[in-house]
């Protein structure tokens, strides 16, 4: 059995919180550059150019790419040969506290009723998965409130089928309009049950722009949804144009014969996630 030092986990989570907020992935940057080339709206082109400038400044000056530094969502893959003589969850909490303090990141987590701020952006949302081996993979994906507010889960009738799923996804985006700060990235979870479909939709957002589902059927669903969403004409920042969405990712799980759970998790153009394996 292998043991990983608690302080290494704390420091890693802190580092990922800061980097995720300040250094957006090259896949996203390249996608926005391609979007600028095909955008037909002059206002849309200008907005995309400003977004690219903002991303560059954030990286060079180590500043948040968005003032909303989000809920810290942490995905943890735990090798089955690892042993922790301490509370792993508390170590992750401490890493979030450290990262949001040292990175001067906005702390937005509060009591749902009193709205009293926790002042350190904890607790994070943590998803654990056990995998073979003796490695620990940590992914931090800060999720902003504006795009999260435009997300939705629904249990459709099985007869709705794939076309019903597509209609639900496109309608959700259409009702969102400018609210999630387009161009957006859309995660779709199909199957499982009510809560698991939402988890699948969130997990889908960890993929890089352009990564297609390994099943050709669902890869085609992703392409079709992307095309249909971009025909809505919402455009960059909702001011009209050809590019409303940069990509759509679908994740799927088996479900009960009597139901068809579907969830849509929308991400703004600041689609943040950083990973590290220990």
From TrEMBL:
It comes from candidate division WOR-3 bacterium. Residues 11-275 form the Fe-S hydro-lyase tartrate dehydratase alpha-type catalytic domain. One of its GO terms (molecular function) is 4 iron, 4 sulfur cluster binding. This is Fumarate hydratase. It holds the Pfam family Fumerase. Belongs to the class-I fumarase family. Keywords: 4Fe-4S, Iron, Iron-sulfur, Lyase, Metal-binding.
């Amino acid at each position: 059995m292998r043991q990983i030092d608690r302080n290494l986990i704390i420091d890693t989570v802190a580092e990922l919180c800061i980097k995720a907020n300040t250094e957006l992935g090259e896949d996203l940057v390249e996608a926005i550059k391609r979007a600028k080339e095909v955008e037909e709206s002059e206002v849309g082109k200008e907005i995309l150019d400003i977004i690219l400038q903002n991303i560059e400044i954030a990286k060079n000056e180590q500043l948040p790419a968005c003032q909303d530094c989000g809920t810290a969502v942490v995905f943890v893959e735990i090798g089955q040969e690892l042993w922790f003589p301490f509370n792993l969850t508390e170590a992750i909490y401490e890493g979030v506290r450290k990262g949001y303090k040292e990175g001067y990141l906005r702390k937005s987590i509060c009591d749902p009723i009193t709205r009293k701020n926790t002042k350190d952006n904890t607790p994070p949302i943590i998803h654990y998965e056990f995998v073979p081996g003796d490695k620990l993979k940590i992914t931090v994906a800060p999720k902003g409130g504006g795009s999260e507010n435009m997300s939705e889960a629904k249990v459709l009738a099985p007869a709705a089928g794939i076309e019903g799923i597509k209609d639900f996804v496109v309608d959700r985006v259409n009702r969102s309009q400018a609210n999630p700060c387009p161009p957006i990235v859309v995660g779709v979870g199909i199957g499982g049950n009510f809560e698991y479909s939402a988890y699948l939709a969130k997990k889908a957002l960890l993929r890089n722009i352009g990564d297609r589902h390994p099943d050709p059927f669902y890869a085609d669903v992703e392409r079709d949804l992307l095309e249909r969403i971009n025909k809505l004409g919402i455009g960059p920042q909702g001011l009209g144009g050809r590019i409303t969405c940069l990509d759509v990712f679908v994740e799927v799980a088996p479900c009960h014969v009597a139901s068809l759970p579907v969830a849509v998790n929308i991400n703004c153009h600041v689609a943040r996630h950083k990973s590290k394996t220990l």
